[in-house]
Amino acid sequence: MKSRETLVVFQYIIQSEKELKLNLNGYLEVDSPNENIYKVEGNVYINYQEPACFDINNILLRGGTLKNTEYIYGIVIYTGVETKIMKNIK
After folding, report:
1. How far does CA 66 lie from the centroid of its chain?
2. Does residue 83 fall inside a structural domain?
3. Per mean pLDDT, which of 38-42, 73-77, 80-84 is the most reliable?
4. Do 13 and 23 meet the contact criterion of CB atoms below 8 Å apart?
């Protein structure tokens, strides 16, 4: 089982679903889709603050299963044939 964690910036703005809808305003910069499933790097810009860096420890890959938590909020960064799993199918 691999542990994943949220970015600290999200911990402060998401205390309830209502706060999520009111406070989540920003954008992502992320690597272009590639086949390396062990490396993802990017930045999250929330409410015009300094960027928060994220990496593979903050990502749940396609096919992953949640354990020991009731729910998560997530942002989809790769879809379809651009997912890391699909990039690895030869």
Report:
1. 14
2. yes
3. 38-42
4. yes
Max alpha carbon distance in the chain (Å)?
43
Query: And the tokens for 5?
Result: 């964690």
Tokens linked to 81: 């044939």
Query: What are the residues facing 28 on neighbouring strands?
Result: 44
Total count of domains within the chain: 1
Range of the domain at 49: 8-87
The pTM (predicted TM-score) of the whole model is 0.71
Residue 28 maps to a domain: yes
> Is the Cβ–Cβ distance between 49 and 1 less than 8 Å?
no
Which of 42, 40, 67, 64 is closest to 53 using CA atoms?
Answer: 42
Q: Is the pLDDT of residue 24 over 80?
A: no
